[in-house]
């Protein structure tokens, strides 16, 4: 087991160490600390297996950067650094600025939960995230699963639109499509575990627990797909999937998604925000009165778009999804 992966090589660890050092050299002068999240931050990242059997990084580098103040100028600065590093390293680098003084008031979201309990401090105070609230492991808001499903459903919509052009896709696009489909399969399993009260940060633990979920729609498909998606995360041999029918897999996954999302949303009754906040957000962004969070309308629109029956345009959906994801 490597530092950043479950099955990756020492050479891959060394490459990732080099990448993180380059990120540190560019970003650290502009912030107090840099914290690696995602697969590599958990030690469960993907080694991409090349044709010659060697390995290279495959996951994005998702990093929280701790600063004094977050404003538009600060965000723009880190966006420029993201672009520079992504070009230099050859992998997406995402930098999310967090204000140090607001750490103690971070909302109980899935992102913040995983940030608190599953991260790797690359530079700065190694205990800096101790300032965050102590989130209860069995109290993750189930609405967070709906947010996850919306973001993963958006990936399905992206693939569906790409396939609709009837243009043959490249090998690079094929790998990207399979990666996105597997993110959806992981989201199915994660949300089923959330609903069953069996969620955990570690995929090793979740893989053992997936058979304990209740009876969501397409239960067998969800369990089998979850296990296969975790296996691909641990050993990214995409050449072994050359025979996979992408179009058929996308169609099947969309069918399951359009049954699973409404089922999952019925597993909880809590509002996504207060009525006053919902009214304010809708007046600002939708120019109408509504007591539902705008994100809730996006769930309905996503199902409709995936089934080619929505009155909301793709462009409007994408704009709102970026804002409320």
Q: Can you describe what's shown?
A:
This protein is of the alpha+beta class. The chain has 2 domains: 10-131, 2-Layer Sandwich (Beta Polymerase, domain 2); 143-324, no CATH class. The protein has helices at residues 10-27, 38-42, 72-89, 110-117, 143-163, 171-195, 203-209, 219-234, 246-265, 275-285, 294-306, 314-324, and strands at residues 33-36, 47-49, 55-57, 61-67, 93-99, 120-123. The protein has a 4-stranded mixed beta sheet with strand order 5-4-1-6. A two-stranded antiparallel ribbon has the order 2-3.
Topology, please?
Blueprint: H1 10-27, E1 33-36, H2 38-42, E2 47-49, E3 55-57, E4 61-67, H3 72-89, E5 93-99, H4 110-117, E6 120-123, H5 143-163, H6 171-195, H7 203-209, H8 219-234, H9 246-265, H10 275-285, H11 294-306, H12 314-324
Parallel strand pairs: 4-5
Antiparallel strand pairs: 1-4, 1-6, 2-3
Essential attributes:
2 domains; alpha+beta; four-stranded mixed β-sheet; 9% strand; two-stranded antiparallel sheet; 325 residues; 6 strands; Beta Polymerase, domain 2
Mean pLDDT: 93
Largest sheet: 4 strands, mixed
Radius of gyration (CA) equals 20 Å
Helical region count? 12
Give the percentage of residues in beta strands. 5-15%
Strand ordering within the main sheet: 5-4-1-6
Q: What distance lies between the first and last C-alpha atoms, to the nearest angstrom?
A: 33 Å
Domain unit count: 2
The structural class is: alpha+beta
* Helicity range: 40-55%
């Amino acid at each position: 087991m490597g530092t950043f992966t479950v099955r990756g090589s020492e050479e891959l660890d060394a490459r990732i160490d080099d990448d993180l050092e380059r990120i540190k050299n560019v970003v650290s002068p502009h912030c107090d600390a840099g914290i690696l999240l995602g697969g590599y931050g958990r030690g469960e990242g993907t080694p991409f297996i090349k044709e010659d059997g060697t390995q290279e990084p495959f996951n994005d580098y998702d990093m929280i950067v701790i600063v004094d103040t977050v404003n538009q100028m600060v965000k723009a600065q880190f966006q420029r650094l993201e672009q520079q590093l992504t070009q230099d390293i050859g992998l997406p680098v995402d930098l999310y600025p967090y204000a140090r003084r607001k750490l103690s008031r971070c909302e109980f979201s899935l992102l913040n939960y995983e940030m608190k309990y599953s991260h790797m401090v690359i530079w700065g105070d190694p205990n800096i995230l101790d300032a965050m609230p102590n989130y209860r492991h069995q109290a993750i808001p189930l609405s967070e699963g709906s947010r996850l499903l919306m973001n993963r459903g958006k990936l399905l919509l992206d693939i569906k639109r790409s396939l609709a052009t009837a243009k043959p896709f490249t090998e690079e696009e094929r790998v990207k499509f399979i990666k996105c489909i597997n993110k959806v399969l992981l989201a199915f399993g994660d949300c089923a575990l959330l609903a069953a009260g069996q969620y955990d940060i570690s995929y090793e633990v979740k893989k053992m627990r997936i058979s304990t979920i209740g009876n969501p729609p397409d239960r067998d498909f969800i369990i089998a797909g979850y296990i296969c998606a975790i296996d691909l995360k641990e050993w990214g041999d995409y050449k072994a999937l050359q025979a996979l029918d992408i179009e058929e897999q996308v169609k099947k996954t969309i069918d399951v998604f359009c049954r699973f999302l409404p089922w999952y949303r019925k597993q909880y009754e809590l509002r996504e925000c207060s009525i006053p906040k919902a009214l304010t957000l809708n007046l600002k962004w939708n120019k109408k009165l509504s007591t539902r969070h705008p994100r809730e309308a996006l769930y309905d629109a996503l199902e409709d778009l995936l089934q080619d029956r929505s009155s909301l345009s793709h462009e409007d959906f994408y704009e709102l999804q970026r804002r409320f994801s």
